[in-house]
Amino acid sequence: MQNWEKLQQTCQTCTRCELCSGRHNVVFGVGNKDADIMLIGEGPGEQEDLQGVPFVGAAGQFLDDILSIIDLNRENVYIANIVKCRPPGNRDPKDEEQDACMEYLNQQIALVRPKIIVCLGRIAARRMIDPEYRITKDHGIWICRDGVWITAIYHPSALLRDVSKRPETFEDLLEIREKIRRIGANIEEKPSA
Ligand code: URA
User: Fold this and answer.
1) Quick one: what percent of the chain has pLDDT higher than 90?
2) Ligand 1 environment, Cβ below 6 A
3) Across the chain, what does the average pLDDT equal?
4) Engineered SS bond to 57: which of 47, 73, 102, 135, CB 3.0-4.6 Å?
5) Mean pLDDT across the stretch 55-76?
6) Which ligand 1 atom sits nearest the alpha carbon of residue 82?
7) Global pTM exceeds 0.70
8) Yes or no: is domain 4-180 CATH 3.40.470.10?
9) CA dihedral 54, 57, 63, 66 (to 10 degrees)
10) For 102-125, what is each residue's pLDDT tens digit?
């Protein structure tokens, strides 16, 4: 397994899929590398591509808002995406693009060693939990795989678009808070090493 520095360098120069040709920046990840909680989105949008940081556009601001409800923030979670380069026009990342990029995410997960993974939206849930995952039906359900608790909530963009989904997400967030409490996950805002 590569260390953080080597892994990030490898990603910066990656040409494993066609998304590399249109990128301004590889969007590697952000947050606390020692976090007990990891959030996984789908892939960078326009602002993320320009700035090289996940969830910095409108959806990202909304994500920060909903995380704050349960005392989470970029100092006590680590955030990454299924694909690290922007799909053109914000289309869904293709299966082959996800396949090409998953090794990097799996290495990030192995380095962070989170106790809890929260998938943000359908694409991440299908990749991380079950290829048949139905976000409308299955959000908020927990599985435990290799000792890691995994769940999914609606993607922040969906919550921005559709206000009617917010109450269910509020319930899911409370369950995440309860899981953090029950398994003793650390949400101190320690700077990562
Ligand atoms: N949507 C995502 O899934 N990830 C980002 O980084 C930004 C928007």
Assistant:
1) 95
2) 27, 41-45, 48, 54-55, 59-60, 81, 120
3) 97
4) 47
5) 97
6) 3
7) yes
8) yes
9) 150
10) 999 999 999 999 999 999 999 999
**Per-domain residue ranges of the chain:** 4-180
Taking the CA of residue 120 as reference, the ligand 1 atom at the shortest distance is 3
DSSP, res 154: -
CA of 132 to the centre of ligand 1 (A): 21
The pLDDT confidence band at residue 190, using thresholds 50, 70 and 90, is low
Q: Nearest to residue 92, comparing CAs of 103, 76, 81?
A: 81
Flag whether pLDDT at 189 surpasses 90.
Answer: no
Q: The sheet that has 78-81: what strands, in order across it? A: 30-31, 78-81, 37-41, 116-120, 148-153, 143-145
CA 147 vs CA 82, 132, 144, 150: distances in Å: 21, 22, 6, 10
Nearest to 176 by CA among 142, 125, 145: 142
CA of 41 to the centre of ligand 1 (A): 5
Sign of CA dihedral 95, 101, 104, 108: negative
**DSSP H or E run through 143:** strand 143-145
Q: pLDDT at residue 137 above 90? A: yes
Position 35: which residue type? A
DSSP state for residue 155 in the 8-state scheme: -
Structure-token match 């892939």, residue found: 43
Question: How many helices and strands in the chain, by DSSP H and E?
Answer: 8, 6
Closest ligand 1 atom, residue 121 Cα = 3
